């Protein structure tokens, strides 16, 4: 018997808490009654990746070399699918995945497609994300391609989003940060947004630190959508989850 | 600049939920204010590992080949430390780690040493674990080496422990399973145990599904102890967490 390598590779570490959360969502998205029915996965979680936003909006160090090392490590492990548990990193990863021969399941594209399938044509969607993701226009472009318009917070409000993300990365997320995000969501709703994208893997964790059970706007979680799409695609590639023969 | 490989390897997938929980504990155990201060980690989570208990107490398939493939995959990724997020797997892993040149940080030894440091000499410790871990006598031997006696549940009570573990693996953990574990802990306490080992990575998750805030016996969580020891040892090996040069 030759054991086939794990089919799913997760590039994480941006940040580590969001990687924990993404793998938790992947496990929860997998229909399985025993260990053996879950997906074999390799997670490359190297938090030394330089800040993606600093590279996109300023003169920060290029994260490409560390991202390339992670993609190469996953490819060497034999995975075929690549999921990246960081929205902002999608500004850098597509050519690295292609060069390594991995099929990237884009968190951006999966989210835009889901929004297009559930919102009225031409709807406006708010975006809570890092300044890097906002500046990269990743969600703007993917949503425009499916007929949706993206609305981003004004600079003062964006600063509150950035602070809430930083608090999760520092392990200090609290109800204050969640309340700030709720106010930003309210402003986006008042400006015409019909839903919002939690477009940074830390945003959902920041919102969860609050006590408000009723969000002012429907919030879609790209990490959760990505988890379900990874399960669907992995099962297409290897229909029998217990298949151990290559 | 040559990027050094991640120093920590985690062999998981036994089960996936426990792997999520272990990585969460590792992140929580790391003093860090930014992503870049966290430990670079590779997680090999292949749930195709045949049931460890079935191999230890019956005629189940030998898990060694799949475990060896995971250890080899982590070694090929360049890690130096190996943490295994499954107690029962420690009946198989030590020679595989040695053959691959990896330093195994044993969840069993870390736990026995902590118990010896916190309990009176000669104390009795209860064990909630799989039938495989019980039969392997991993904890019996490690605790005997530090002067502690391990007490295990009677067969009917062990069956309730086994059922609670299976419920976590199936994603159906609930308050009933947690209450059953609380009763087993009560029996162990009445028989003289001064503390108990949550000696299967799923036990803490099973207990957390309950509503009881006050355990009948102090329960030590080997996964949490292992997480802290991995952080300590990784920082010894690579004192500057941002060190990216090999």
Automatic annotation (TrEMBL), chains A, B:
* Keywords noted in UniProt: Isomerase
Look up the coiled coil feature and give its residue ranges. none
Do you know which InterPro entries this protein is assigned to? Answer: Asp/Glu/hydantoin_racemase (IPR015942), Asp/Glu_race (IPR001920), Asp/Glu_racemase_AS_1 (IPR018187), Asp_race (IPR004380)
Origin organism of this chain? Actinocatenispora sera
Which molecular-function annotation in GO is an example for this chain?
Answer: amino-acid racemase activity
Q: Pfam families recorded for this chain? A: Asp_Glu_race
**Descriptive protein name:** Aspartate racemase
Similarity field: Belongs to the aspartate/glutamate racemases family.
